[in-house]
Amino acid sequence: MSAIVEVVEAGLAVTIQDRGRNGYRNIGVPVSGALDPLLITAANALLGNDPDAAVLEVCLAGPSLKALSGTVRVSLAGELSAQVVTTRGRMLKVEPWHTATLFPGDVVRIGSVVKGVGYVGISGGFLVPEQLGSRSTYMRARIGGIDGSPLALGQHLPCLPLSGNPWLEGCGTLEWPAEDCPLRVILGPQDDHFTPSALATFFGQPYVVTRDMDRMGIRFEGEKLAHNERGAEVVSDGVAPGSIQVPANGQPIVLLADCQTSGGYPKIATVIKADLPRLAHVRPGDVVRFVAVDHRQAAAALRDQASWVARWCETIGTFCPPGVVDETALYEDNLISGAIRGDEAFAVV
Amino acid sequence: MNATVPILPVRLLSVGDTAWTVEFGVAIDPAIHGRVLGFCGLLDTLSADGRLDGVVEWVPTFRSVTVHFNPQQIDAMVLRNLLSELAGKSGVLSAVGCRWHIPVCFDAESAPDLADVAKAKGMTPEEVVHLLTGSIFSVYMLGFLPGFPYLGGVPEALDMPRLASPRKVVPARTIAIAGRMCAAYPWESPGGWRLLGRTPVRLFDAANSRRPALLAPGDEVVWEAIDSAVYAELDAECAAGRFDLMQLMRQGGL
């Protein structure tokens, strides 16, 4: 059993992403995957999907999707809203952190992200074929997604038909935390390429996000970080998302999901895994500060984060979309008047 | 590579809370690279025995191995100690790979920097091509882009620094040099290396899940000059998927 949605508007640079592609970094293939993997968890939890199912990553304008065959459900994670236009021309607004059901012929118009990136999940996940073990789109080498490219008009995206109650939608009931404390980093691997005053500057001064940012990384601008006599180049060694490389101009670049697997600039520090999702949401002009932590603190941060994400998922609530609520109210009136008997099926509403 | 490499102290460098770099040296040197391959061989063995829980993958470079791990599956410090212990007892592995003879077109159109390099070195373009095609290059590592091989073995006479200002676009499958290194760009990308030729051979194919990258560390490469007519012919064959890459292999087995 499968269902199909058609891309009726492509949006801008919308890509299919999952948790990324492991096992091929030794041949130069980046990990890719969602810039904010926590939001993949949320988008899938709203649908009762496997937490790793593939979603759409929306950086600017979202796409419009039409249910072609099967009844499907979409979810929104992040500061992203949408509108469902039914075959009968009714319009329903879909709030962030909510799901919406599409009957065959219905269209969902995903809006623009307010800040950073947002994600659109779908029942069963976007079931395009995996390439090298992942569905994540890596555009430079045309790997994953559909032909390794952003969504395009007319594409058919396979997913699964909705298996639950189509009148009972899901929504987050807890606010998604927005942290604005300094970005936590672990020093190294090449902090020994910098002068003591460069290290003091790095941790003491603000750095501004420039326009030069994409899925590979973000260039920051701030007080110059001076290299010591070891210089501004190393014989290329391994990097990871979160690596902060500093080329000769002394301005830090933080690498993200699509980053190369190795690099020849000294890397002063690495953003910890728990704080990396926050970089998915910065915008040019935003100011960040860096603070050093050790491995123990990084592990604690990751545990805390996993537990609040789990709590957010456990507290997902249900609601009836407008229109359906009226029907329910009718039934409730009937119950009160004793016209029909109570029924367990209504008790869950 | 020989087996009498002086054992330098290995350094364990932090790459955040998801990776450690095991550093065997800071230079491009066959002896250091032998230790890199030896360490990877040991990791391969342990992984096959299921004794590297929490380790996601590892990436060999010229001089180090970056071991990526899942911090929710293994404690970073426990892994650090394990890697440190393993690095102390892993040996040196000579590269055992295949030798590939790869066709390259050196026409001016495919080799925008050939004339400049020749001029800087007081040679004719033909002499530069003769030096390139007469050398055996060794694959040290893959990185930067999917399937991008870093090759050692550029003759000293061709040693040139990178371009002062990198190009915004290097066409896919361009052969380039920088210092004593040679490479082939599998994809169109920005790049600061000097562009000396172009191969019709696709160096990376994601649809080939068994061996998506043609070259592997330890392989050797010989460039074979072809003219633009042969280039066009082979390019069409490769684009249509009708070119058998195995015919480029001269020795060794996969």
Record the SSE blueprint.
The complex is a heterodimer of chains A (349) and B (254).
Chain A lengths: L2 E7 L5 E3 L19 H9 L9 E4 L5 E6 L2 E6 L4 E4 L5 E4 L4 E4 L4 E4 L7 E5 L33 E4 L9 E3 L11 E5 L8 H9 L2 E7 L3 E5 L15 E2 L4 E3 L7 E3 L6 E2 L3 E5 L15 E2 L1 E3 L2 H20 L2 E3 L4 H14 L6 H4 L2
Parallel strand pairs in A: 13-22
Antiparallel strand pairs in A: 1-4, 1-11, 2-3, 3-10, 4-9, 5-8, 5-10, 6-7, 6-9, 12-23, 13-20, 14-15, 14-21, 15-18, 16-19, 17-18, 17-20
Chain B lengths: L10 E4 L4 E5 L6 H19 L6 E6 L3 E6 L6 H14 L9 E7 L8 H7 L4 H9 L3 E6 L6 E4 L14 E4 L3 E5 L2 E5 L3 E3 L2 E5 L21 E7 L1 H12 L9 E3 L3
Parallel strand pairs in B: 5-13
Antiparallel strand pairs in B: 1-2, 2-4, 3-4, 5-14, 6-7, 6-13, 7-10, 8-11, 9-10, 9-12
List keywords for this structure.
heterodimer; A: 349 residues; alpha+beta; Cyclophilin; six-stranded antiparallel β-sheet; 16% helix; B: 254 residues; four-stranded antiparallel β-sheet; globular; disordered N terminus
Question: How would you summarize what this structure contains?
Answer:
The complex is a heterodimer of chains A (349) and B (254). Chain A is α+β, with helices and mostly antiparallel strands and 349 residues long. Chain A is 16% helix and 27% strand.
